[in-house]
Amino acid sequence: MTSLLDGAKRLMSRGSDLGDRIEALGRAGEAARGRLDDRVVDDAEATVDRVARRLGLAADHTVVAIAGATGSGKSSTFNALAGIELSSVGVRRPTTSWATACVWGKAGADELLDYLVIPPRHQIMRESLLDLGKEDQALQGVVLLDLPDHDSTEVSHHLEVDRLIELTDLMVWVLDPQKYADAAIHDRYLAPFSAYQDVMLVVLNHIDEVPDDRRRAMLDDVRRLLDADGLARVPLLATSARTGEGIDELRSAVAERVKAKAVTRSRLEADVQAAAGRLRDASGTSGHPELSKQRIAALEDAFADAAGVPTVVAAVESATRMRGRRATGWPVTSWLSRLRPDPLKRLHLDLGKDASLLTGRARTSVPAQTQVQRARVDAEVRAVADEVSTPLARPWAESVRRASVTRLSDLNDRLDVALSATELNVDRMPLWAGLVRVLQWLLLLAALAGLLWSALLLADPWLGVDRPHTPDVGGFPVPVLLLLGGVVLGLLLALLCRLLVGATARSRARVADRRLRSAISVVAEELVVVPVRAELMAYDTVREGLARALA
């Protein structure tokens, strides 16, 4: 299809934008595939293919089809325009389902006849006949088709008529005075082709069989029916193939349109507009809102809740407090904290630098989603789809809703990997905690030194040793100061550090919450937002393409 579109664009680049419109319809059909009714999309793509092919064939030839019901004089009209008996007339006419083609001007017509799928035995080259007349010059470049009867009992005849009508540049409908109001032709062919009235002619044949005083009234009645079919601009001619009445006018009308070199383009433009109109009716024309930040934020919050982010954040804060107190607490009692289980280790999230090495097979021990959490996720996903799809036609609304849930089967695995792959930085304690730890041990050593010194002083009388002079500070013995100072200062430092550890734990919890939600937002974007936006982009492509094709 791409090569056909490129060819059409090159052919129509001078003075016409039909090539661009064909290309736009092709883009719209491609974007609508799988989202709108396949029959409508197939019709649009077939039109693109057909119109592009026609643009590349026999620009100097115009295909004119004579169509009508049995007994309307269609074949007689064909013969009259050709100026020679070429098509069988009446009840003895062959029952072949093939059309007959009479060609004025051989050069370049072969490919066009192949495009029309007219067998060689049903092709007549007008210049090869011996009785050329001046009318042949008027119809130079015409490929005149005599179609099978559209009301034939043979199904193959109906199919051939329908096929060739799609490929015809100018349609001439021949009506019979006794059956001109037959619903078969009005409902099946004339009214449905109202968009093609600029490339149609209607002929009331056998006018010689209508009394003179009734002709005007009959023509007015036919005109009324055509107007009701939406064909107000279609010329109506009265002819008699038997007597030749009106045939010259019909030939002149055909020749005039062929000479203007606009019939083919008008027919192809009508084809593009008709197919684009049908696709537009199926697709709709309404705009759509963009996904709001608030709606996306609500979706990410639901995903974060389902992933257990609040649980992990609470574990980060608790683990930071535990590890900080263990590092900065009074060494005599801080070892007791080792008896308590580490919150992050219980969740299998104490991974440190190894977190970046995780694969999709990693698993955490975050509690499974509850029914409430799953229901919230479902509600937020529906809300995302509803926010942008409510104004759209039903096929597009359904397409957006399908896209929003297509990848939710991967949700649990993706959330689990997002949690376990996020660097929480809990394993690294701040620098000041290390300094406090050293200071605590120095204070403890001082207290122990004071304790031993005091014990020696108390044991001197028992050992029979003269007590040495004990230094003092402000009247207090140094050993006592060392003992009491080491213990009291260690406890006070531990209490002060509890405040610092608490602030650090809250800060790290906020950082962990931000990082985890950032990782969860990537999951929400990939699993829900991106598929929904892809559908909206496809819808915009269809709408913009149709607007260009219908311009």
Compact summary:
The protein is α/β, with parallel strands linked by helices.
Describe the structure.
This protein folds into 2 domains: about 200 residues, Rossmann fold (3-Layer(aba) Sandwich), CATH 3.40.50; about 260 residues, no CATH class. Helices cover about 60% and strands about 5% of the residues. The chain contains 20 helices and 9 strands. About 5% of the residues have low confidence.
Secondary-structure blueprint:
Layout: H1 2-11, H2 18-32, H3 38-55, E1 62-68, H4 74-82, E2 100-103, H5 109-116, E3 123-125, H6 134-138, E4 142-146, H7 155-167, E5 170-175, H8 183-190, E6 200-204, H9 212-228, E7 236-238, H10 247-259, H11 263-283, H12 293-307, H13 309-328, H14 331-334, H15 343-346, H16 371-389, H17 394-405, H18 411-420, H19 431-463, E8 472-473, E9 476-477, H20 478-549
Parallel strand pairs: 1-4, 1-5, 2-3, 5-6, 6-7
Antiparallel strand pairs: 2-4, 8-9
